[in-house]
Design a protein that fits this description.
By secondary structure, the protein is α+β, with helices and mostly antiparallel strands. It has two domains: 15-61; 90-214, no CATH class. Helix content is 41%, strand content 22%.
Length: 217
């Protein structure tokens, strides 16, 4: 297997289409208001649609073109608000978590990564990124609540300091992130989650690639 491997994200796709389409629509709406003053309301709505398209294009512009990079020594996940990096030797499991629903196994739309030493993430995750991930993963906790695995109180954001096995305590924005990782690991066997929406290829193929590299270490 040739390394490094860069897995592209579909998030930035069509950014120019949205920005150019929005700009043209905005120009049309402004011209329409000037030429047909009696239709100012209709063209005003068109202006709002144009601004929405431009906003989507701008948001896509800031999305990372690569979602995951796989090197000989580590895996790195890229997100609009930050990233994390882990050595293969610090990962014990990579899988697509499943749950029972009406006597059937179903997948959640994430690749799960189980970490051996969480302390390695302290300097790898920014407070801004941690805060964003806490909220993005609420859908996983909502699933756990719907399945009866936890109650709403257990899913609340835990702002208390987090104590690592070494005795080191984490406070501030990172503490809820670590508390949530522990809860998610108990529920679905993984601390970190990478959404399926971050891949242009099959998630199972990504899992297979990651596990193949990990087992070579």
């Amino acid at each position: 297997m040739k390394l490094p491997i860069y897995i592209e994200s579909p998030a930035p796709n069509f950014k120019r289409f949205f920005m150019l389409g929005g700009a043209l629509l905005l120009a049309l709406a402004i011209a329409g208001q000037l030429l047909w003053p009696s239709m100012v309301l209709q063209f005003g709505i068109l202006c709002l649609a144009a601004v929405s398209l431009i906003s989507v294009g701008i948001a896509k512009h800031f999305e990372p073109p690569i979602s995951v990079s796989l090197t000989e020594n580590s895996v790195r996940y890229f997100h609009r608000y930050g990233q994390w990096k882990l050595a293969w030797t610090n990962i014990s499991r990579i899988h697509i978590p499943r749950f029972y629903h009406q006597l059937e196994h179903r997948e959640i739309s994430y690749i799960g990564v189980k970490v051996d030493d969480l302390e390695a993430l302290i300097d790898n995750v920014s407070p801004r990124f941690a805060s964003r991930i806490i909220h993005e993963h609420r859908d996983i906790l909502a699933l756990a609540i719907s399945q009866g695995d936890i109650n709403a109180a257990q899913a609340q954001i835990n702002l208390s300091p987090f104590k690592l096995p070494s005795g080191f305590q984490i406070a501030g924005p990172l503490a809820p992130f670590f508390h949530q990782m522990i809860l998610l690991e108990k529920l679905y066997g993984a601390h970190l989650f990478i959404p399926f929406s971050g891949f242009t290829t099959s998630p199972q193929e990504v899992v297979n690639q990651m596990n193949a590299i990990r087992k070579m270490r």
